[in-house]
TrEMBL record:
<dbReference type="Pfam" id="PF01548">
    <property type="entry name" value="DEDD_Tnp_IS110"/>
</dbReference>
<feature type="domain" description="Transposase IS116/IS110/IS902 C-terminal">
    <location>
        <begin position="248"/>
        <end position="328"/>
    </location>
</feature>
<dbReference type="InterPro" id="IPR002525">
    <property type="entry name" value="Transp_IS110-like_N"/>
</dbReference>
<dbReference type="InterPro" id="IPR003346">
    <property type="entry name" value="Transposase_20"/>
</dbReference>
<protein>
    <submittedName>
        <fullName>IS110 family transposase</fullName>
    </submittedName>
</protein>
<dbReference type="Pfam" id="PF02371">
    <property type="entry name" value="Transposase_20"/>
</dbReference>
<feature type="domain" description="Transposase IS110-like N-terminal">
    <location>
        <begin position="61"/>
        <end position="174"/>
    </location>
</feature>
<dbReference type="InterPro" id="IPR047650">
    <property type="entry name" value="Transpos_IS110"/>
</dbReference>
Length: 379
């Protein structure tokens, strides 16, 4: 874990530490140095007032005009543009994983923006002083890396919305004892002739609603197709360069499709660097959380504190791996250890997902193929 001491130029200097508590209505700043601190508020995105607040704080706290500034804020809806803007103005900023911030365990506690800002500043002070566990910075992607995550994230959102609409259509029909057959493109035409369970045609209001729902479903299908075409066009334009080469490499494995490889590369492998397998597994929440206190010992399950998109994908990919790579060492290990009971299968699939993630990471980094894996295309 890196600390602010990586900025060695600041060692021995008095630094202005700034914590930003962000909201849609107001930004609250806590600025401190020399054992003192002060607060300021400003309109969201008011850069001029932010720089003025820094200048005022330096003057009030007895710092030189050119004193270095280190700031932090929690990762959230405001994204990373603030981090980039601060860097442009000479502020060394860190974006904090909000789930890593310490929380008082009392049943009720004071929760205001002022209190949160003070707490964040205190943690920044400890972190800058060398306490690596006080805060956990997140890796900030470049503009290009952030843009490459748009397509698959949009597709995942649309697929989820399409599933919701599809379930709603099925529910409305099931309430009438009706089930539509064939491809979704034919559903609308079937509404005129279909009969309910007791032999009646669909009533006009229900039929009109079902037509709207089916149109919505088909529109989402078309949107998903457009997104997949955009992905294919980018793959073709890249011609196997940069991170797109990793996508093509992972796709050669049976059971790993285009969407799985695309998500793994642009969420993890294509722009983040991991020192070891534990750090990789922790980044997606595929690590155990044992509880061991006194005579009480138990396993609390996965931490689920990392990238939820990749965590969900790896569980699905683990089941796919068992189906399409039955002779691989990972599949044989899972069957020998976990296939006996239903609970064992559920627990074991998470363990397989973790091992598979590590195996795919090693393949993307140094070309190490998972033992016993088969390829879907010639290499």
């Amino acid at each position: 874990m890196r600390t602010a001491r990586e900025w060695e130029v600041y060692v021995g200097e008095v630094v202005l530490l700034v914590a930003l508590e962000l909201s849609s209505k107001v930004w609250r700043l806590v600025l401190g140095a020399n054992g003192r601190r002060r607060q300021a508020t400003l309109e969201p995105g008011d850069g001029a007032k932010f720089l003025d607040a820094l200048a005022r704080a330096k003057a009030k706290l007895g710092l030189p005009v050119d004193a270095p500034v280190v700031s932090c804020y929690e990762a959230g809806r405001d994204g990373f543009w603030i981090h980039r803007w601060l860097a442009q103005h000479g502020v060394h900023n860190v974006v904090i994983d909000s789930s890593s911030i310490e929380v008082d365990r009392r049943a009720r506690r004071v929760k205001t923006d002022r209190v949160d800002a003070d707490k964040l500043w205190s943690l920044l002070y400890r972190w800058y002083g060398g306490d690596a566990e006080a805060l956990r910075p997140v890796r900030v992607p470049s503009h290009e890396e952030e843009d490459l995550r748009v397509l698959h994230r949009e597709r995942q959102s649309v697929v989820k919305a399409r599933t919701t609409v599809g379930n709603r259509i099925k529910g409305l029909l099931a309430a009438q004892g009706v089930k539509l057959e064939g491809r979704c493109s034919t559903w609308r035409g079937q509404l005129a002739t279909v009969r309910t369970g007791d032999g009646r045609p669909l009533l006009p209001n229900l039929r009109t609603r079902l037509e709207r729902e089916i149109d919505d479903y088909l529109a989402k299908c078309a949107r998903i197709k457009a997104l997949e075409d955009a992905q294919a066009a980018q793959m073709k334009a890249a011609a196997g360069a940069g991170p797109f080469a990793l996508i093509e490499l992972l796709r050669t494995l049976r059971g790993v499709g285009m969407q799985s490889a695309w998500t793994l590369v642009f969420e993890l492998f294509g722009w983040r660097r991991y020192r070891n397998r534990r750090e990789l597994a922790a980044s997606v929440g595929l690590v155990s959380t044992p509880y061991d206190s006194g005579q009480s010992r138990r396993e609390q399950g996965l931490s689920k504190s990392g990238n939820r998109r990749v965590r969900t994908l790896m569980i699905e990919l683990a089941w796919s791996w068992l189906r399409y790579q039955p002779q691989s060492e990972l599949s044989q290990w899972w069957r020998a250890r976990f296939s006996g009971t239903q609970r064992g299968r559920k627990v074991g699939i998470a363990a397989l997902a973790r091992k598979l993630l590590i195996a795919l990471w090693r393949m993307s980094q140094n070309g190490e193929v998972p033992a016993g894996a088969r390829f879907s295309v010639a290499r």
